[in-house]
Design brief:
The chain has helices at 31-41, 75-78, 94-104, 118-121, 126-132, 159-165, 187-210, 220-227, 230-236, 269-278, 293-298, 300-312, 317-326, 337-342, 344-348, 390-398, 402-410; strands at residues 22-26, 45-50, 64-66, 72-74, 84-88, 109-112, 137-142, 215-219, 251-257, 260-266, 330-333, 352-355, 363-366. By secondary structure, the protein is of the alpha/beta class. The chain has a six-stranded parallel beta sheet, sandwiched between helices. Strands 9-10-11 form a three-stranded antiparallel beta sheet.
């Protein structure tokens, strides 16, 4: 199969839409790093600020690999930092804070995802940056936001907390069982990241018109309410949370085939008729047992599942899904990592990036889902070593001399 974007350096012949956009990212873990990586895919120059000794806390996640500098690097860091430069600066030192403030005016965007108020306490909040660089867009991701009051403002938050509070877990909870946590891997972080990108691009567009920067503030809790938009709406209409669950109405579910599961979604009557005829059950059409969409759902376990799974017993999950899709019924296989590697769509869309790792097989990371008709995707640089570009960026951005950089190293303000 063809896996795109395998080289460690960007192709200078390819002009991507965000070329020239400069982002200074005070970031860690998943949400903001995912956002800035996607902006880097689109051509932005992202400079990542990390602690000079420990780096982004995502470096400590598991599993880990050894990078090109000989340092162990965790999975969270590995999948969110392609195409960036890393500088190691101690933000808690006065000199480190001053370095970042001096650098800010040379960037279009300063972005951070610390707990609300943390960077204000360090003298690196929006007011501090705006006072010195009023054109800069300052973007924040936090659990509960910075600009508006919240009783939870000082609470720490990771994706699963925001997902739970936003209403994503309750619809699929069964009886008195606890809700299943992490319903969709990095949803709380990654969906918040996408809202942040929309905010950044909108603020940049307004700056084009006004010449002024502003604070883009995105709360993970708010983002999950937006993602779980059915939960408050259905409540207001008198329906409980379970009404939003798969299989509560119509036919939405996973069914077993020879080699795993496939999912089908049947919401309309003519699709139900096609489903019934496809699996050899034409008598379902017009039967009182299947008179309404709620009846379809009520009969999934006693009638529909046994019939579909008997029909699919000799088929692969992909074959079963294809046969339904050919009848206009929405269906797809429940894919594993191995399935994604082998899928021709994934290859044709360059949705897996092959990243070289010393002394082992290349690592596969998700590619850029945004396709543009007139802009090739280009090539993506690998993830940076901790502080790999510190000296380079300080010379380029602040024109610091070798002696000045040496002094900063010797005092521990920047990494070795």
């Amino acid at each position: 199969m063809r896996i795109g974007n395998t080289l460690p350096a960007a192709d200078p012949a390819v002009r991507r839409p965000l070329e020239g956009l400069r982002i200074l990212a005070l970031e860690q873990m998943q949400a903001l790093p995912f956002a800035t990586q996607l902006l880097a895919y689109l051509g932005a120059d992202v400079t990542k600020v990390e602690h000079p000794e420990h780096g982004d806390t995502g470096r400590g996640a598991t599993p880990r690999v050894v990078d090109h500098t000989g340092r162990e690097v965790g999975a969270t860091y590995l999948r969110n930092n392609l195409g960036k430069r890393s500088v190691g600066i101690d933000l808690k030192s006065e000199a480190g804070r001053d370095l970042v403030l001096r650098m800010a005016s040379h960037f279009d965007v300063v972005a951070e995802n610390f707990k609300a108020g943390s960077l204000d306490a360090l003298g690196l909040g929006y007011a501090d940056v705006h006072a010195l660089a009023p054109r800069v867009i300052y973007a924040s991701i936090s659990g509960f936001g910075n600009l508006r009051p919240s009783p939870y403002k000082r609470w720490p938050a990771y994706g699963p907390i925001a997902e739970a509070m936003g209403g994503l877990l309750e619809p699929n909870r069964k009886g008195d069982d606890p809700p299943g946590v992490v319903p969709a891997q990095g949803l709380g972080d990654n969906a918040t990241a996408l809202y942040c990108i929309i905010g950044i691009l909108s603020a940049l567009r307004q700056r084009d018109q006004t010449g002024k920067g502003q604070h883009v503030d995105v709360a993970m809790y708010d983002s999950m309410i937006a993602m779980a938009d059915m939960t408050p709406q259905l409540h207001s209409l008198g329906a409980d949370a379970s009404h939003a669950a798969a299989g509560r109405t119509a036919i939405v579910g996973a069914f077993r085939a020879r080699d795993g599961y496939f999912v089908i979604a049947v919401f309309r009557e003519h699709h139900f008729e096609r489903l019934a005829k496809s699996i050899g059950k034409p008598e379902w059409v017009g039967s009182p047992e299947f008179a309404t969409r709620d009846d379809w759902a009520r009969n999934i376990e006693p009638i529909v599942r046994p019939a579909i799974e008997a029909w699919a017993r000799d088929k692969t999950k992909l074959e079963a899904a294809r046969l339904f899709a050919e009848q206009g019924i929405a269906a797809g296989p429940s894919n594993t990592g191995r399935d994604l590697v082998d899928d021709p769509h994934v290859a044709a869309h360059d949705m897996l990036i092959e990243v070289p790792i010393p002394d082992r097989e290349p690592m596969l990371l998700a590619g850029n889902p945004i396709k543009l008709s007139s802009t090739p995707e280009g090539l993506v640089r690998s993830f940076p070593g901790l502080g790999e570009h510190t000296d380079e960026v300080l010379r380029e951005v602040l024109a610091l001399s070798d002696d000045e950089i040496s002094e900063l190293h010797s005092t521990g303000v920047i990494g070795p």
